[in-house]
Amino acid sequence: MARLISGRRMALAVITQIAVMASLGAARAQEAWPDRPIRLVVPFAPGGVTDSIGRLSAEWLGARLGKPVVVENRSGGNGTIAAELVAGSRPDGYTLLVASASQLAVLPALTSVRYDPVRSFAPVTIVASNPFALAVPARLGVSNLREFIALAAREKGGLNYGSAGNGSGSHLTMALLLRRAGVEMQHVPYRGGGLAVQDLLAGRVVAYFGNPAEVVPQTQGGAVRLIATSGRARIPELPDVPTVTEQGVNGVVTETWNGISAPAGTPPAIIARLAETLRPACEDAGFRSALSRLGVDPVCNSPAEMAARLEADLPVWREAVQISGATLD
C-alpha cells in the first residue's frame, strides 16, 4: 500500500512538473511573439475596400511588430472560405482574418456556414466602418426621405430600387427601410454596386442604398442626390445629409465594417498587443487619409468593443434578412 501511494505521488509530481513546464513554455512563446511572419487572410480578391483595409493594417502592424505581416487573398464563398480557414487555424497569433460585418453578421443569417460568428473567433479591433447612403436621381424630384417615401406610397410598388446583390448590405438596408416606412418597391439585384450606380444614372432604378465611396462621386455633377444615411450619426464628410432616424423613420441603423479577428483561443496577451498596436493608426494622419479615400471612417476600438458591436449587429441583420426574404442557399 505504501508503495502504491508513493507511486501515485510520484506520478502526480511528474504530471505537475509537465504542466508547469508546458505553462512556462506557453508563456515564453507569448513573450517571444512574433518571432516569424504573420499571415493576414483577406476574404476577397485584391483591389476592393476590404483588401485595401487589410493591406493598410498589415503594413502598420509589420512596421511596429518587427516581423512581416503577409496578406493572403482567399476569395470564394462570399467570404466564408477565408473565415473557415482562420477559424480552424492554430490559435497562436500567426494567422489572422480581415473580418467584416458581411462574413460575421450577415452571412450566418443568409446561409449555412461552418463557423460560429461569436465562438469561432477572438475579436481584435474594428479598423474602419461606414454606413450606407441613399442615392436617388436628381430628376426624381425629391430632396429628402419624407418626400421619397411619399412618392413610393403613391406609386404603390411601381418603383424599382437597385442593390449590389441579393442579400447585400445595400439590399438589406433598403428592405429594412421600406418595411419601417410601410411602403413597397421592386428589388433589382446587380452583380456589384458599380452596375447598380450605372442604372441609377440611366434612370432604370430610382434608388440605391450604397457605400458612400460608390455614390458620393456621382453627386458632383448634380445627376445624383443623397437624401439619407443609415448610420448612428451623420457621415462627417456629408454633414448636410441627415440620417434615416433624424428624418422620422426609426429602426433603420445599419453600418458595415472591416477589422481584424483571430482564431478563438488565441492568448489574450497576443490579442491585446495586436489591438494596442493598431489603436494609434486611427490617430495617424496618413492612415486616416488612406481610409478616407476608401470612403470609410477610422475606428480602431478594443477587442471588447468589437465583440459588443458584433453582438449588437447580429439581430439587426437577422431581421433584415427575414424581411427581405433573401437567401444564398
Largest sheet: 6 strands, mixed
**Beta strands, count:** 11
What is the overall silhouette? Answer: elongated
Give the neighbour order of strands across the main sheet.
2-1-3-10-4-11
Structural class: alpha/beta
Q: Order of helices and strands, N to C?
A: HEHEHEHEEHEHEHEHEEHHEH
Strand content: 15-25%
Kindly provide the radius of gyration, computed on alpha-carbon positions and rounded to a whole number of angstroms.
24 Å
Helix content: 40-55%
**Assembly level:** single chain
Low-confidence stretches: 19-26
- Total helical elements: 11
* Overall pLDDT confidence: 92
Show the helix and strand layout.
Blueprint: H1 2-32, E1 38-42, H2 49-65, E2 69-73, H3 80-87, E3 95-100, H4 101-110, E4 121-131, E5 133-137, H5 145-155, E6 160-163, H6 169-181, E7 186-189, H7 193-202, E8 208-210, H8 212-215, E9 224-229, E10 255-263, H9 268-278, H10 285-293, E11 297-298, H11 303-324
Parallel strand pairs: 1-2, 1-3, 6-7
Antiparallel strand pairs: 3-10, 4-10, 4-11, 5-8, 5-9
General description of the model:
- Helices cover 44% and strands 18% of the residues.
- It is of the alpha/beta class and 329 residues long.
- The strands form three sheets. The protein has a six-stranded mixed beta sheet, with helices on both faces. A three-stranded antiparallel beta sheet has the order 8-5-9.
- Strand 1 (38-42), helix 2 (49-65) and strand 2 (69-73) form a beta-alpha-beta unit.
- Helix 4 (101-110) packs parallel to helix 11 and helix 6 (169-181) packs across helix 11.
- The longest helix has 31 residues, at 2-32.
